[in-house]
Amino acid sequence: MSLIKDKYERVIDYMRISITDRCNLRCVYCMPADGIKPVDFRNILSYEEIVRIVKTGVKLGVRKVRITGGEPLIRKNLPYLIKEINNIDGIEDISITTNGLLLKQYVRQLVDAGLKRVNISLDSLRPERYSEITRGGDIKKVFEGIQEAEAVGLTPIKINMVPIRGFNDDEIEEFAKITMKTAYHIRFIEFMPIGSREIWSREKYISSEELRQRVSEVAPLMPLKIRRSGPARYYGFENAPGCIGFISPITHHFCNTCNRLRLTSDGKLRPCLFSETEIDLKSALRNGASDEEVERLLRLAVEIKPEGHSINHEKSFDHLKPMSKIGG
Ligand code: SAM
Ligand code: SF4
C-alpha cells in the first residue's frame, strides 16, 4: 500500500471534498443573509470527476474521504457518489459533515451506500436561537436527523459547535453535559475569522483553552486518547459515556498533525484551509489530462502543503473564501 508524506513528515491520507457551495441555511457567521453567489453548475465537478480524483488520491495513499459543502445533502444523488467512492479499493472510511436538516430523509440510503460516520453542526440547543443563528433553520429537523443517524448505527454521533461570545457561549456547559448522558462526541470549534463579516470580532472569539477551562468548571475533565481523533483533542467527565473535543484552528495544535488535502466544489485542490494557493484540477481534467498528469498535480499539492498558517484572532482575513466555498 502506498503512503505519501509531505515535506514535514506528515502522512497525507485524507481528502475533504466539497460537493457544493450552496446551502439550505444561512448561518450568520458563515454566510451573508442573501447568500453568496454560487458557482455555476457547469463549473461544479461532476461525480465522475470526483471519483477519478479520489482514485488517483488512493494511488498516492488517500484512505479516508469526508464529503462536505455548502450543505452536501442538498446535492442530488449523494448516495450514488458515496457508493462509487466506497467501491474504490483502498478507501477505508467515508464520512460527511452536515447541518442535519435533511439527515432523517437520506441517512439510511447513505449508510446503505457505505457512509461510515457523520458530523452534525449544531450551534444552539434552543429552537428560537437556532433559528436566529441559521436564519430560519428548524431545530426539530436536526434532532430528528440525529435520532435517525443513531437508529441506523452511525455512532458515535459527533456534534460540532462553534461558540461565539455573547451569542451562544452561555450554552457551552449545557452542550458539555450532553456527554454525561449520551455517548455523543461534543466538539467545540474555535470561531475563525473567515466567512460572514457581520459577526466576527476579536472579542467574540473564544480560545480552546478558555473553553476547556469553562467546561472543567462543570466537573473535572480528564484527557482521553481516541483513535482517529483528527484535529480534535478529547476530554471526558468521569464515568461519562460521551466525550468532549476541542478543535483549535486558531491556537494551532492543528497544523502539525494535518493529514489532509481539500477539494473545492469547483475542482480546486487546496493544500491548506488558510492559504489561497489552489491547484486547478478541474481545468486539467476538462482539458484531457492523463491519469499521470492528475497524479502529478496531486503530488504537487502535497509537496507545497505549508507547515502551518499565520491566521490568528487579531484580525479578519478578508482575502479568505468563506467555509461554504472551501468546504468546512
Ligand atoms: N453545511 C455543513 C455544516 O454546516 O455542517 C457543512 C459545511 S460547514 C461550512 C462546515 C463547518 O464549518 C460547520 O460546522 C460550521 O460551523 C463551520 N464553520 C463555518 N464558518 C466558520 C467559522 N467562521 N469559524 C468556525 N467554524 C466555521
Ligand atoms: Fe450552510 Fe454549513 Fe455555512 Fe451553516 S455553516 S451556512 S449550514 S454551509
Describe what this molecule looks like in 3D:
By secondary structure, the protein is an alpha/beta fold. It has one domain (14-326): Aldolase class I (TIM Barrel), CATH 3.20.20. It has helices spanning 47-60, 78-86, 103-113, 127-134, 139-151, 172-181, 208-216, 281-286, 291-303, 323-326; strands at 14-18, 64-68, 93-98, 117-121, 158-161, 185-189, 221-224, 232-237, 243-247, 260-263, 268-270, 279-280. Strands 7-8-9-6-5-4-3-2-1-10-11-12 form a 12-stranded mixed beta sheet. The chain is globular and about 55 Å long. S-adenosylmethionine is lined by residues 23, 29-30, 68-69, 71, 97-99, 121, 160, 162, 189, 191-192, 194-195, 323-324, 328.
Give the distinct bound molecules: S-adenosylmethionine, iron/sulfur cluster
Gyration radius, in Å: 19 Å
Low-confidence stretches: none
Strand order of the largest sheet: 7-8-9-6-5-4-3-2-1-10-11-12
Quaternary organisation of the protein chains? single chain
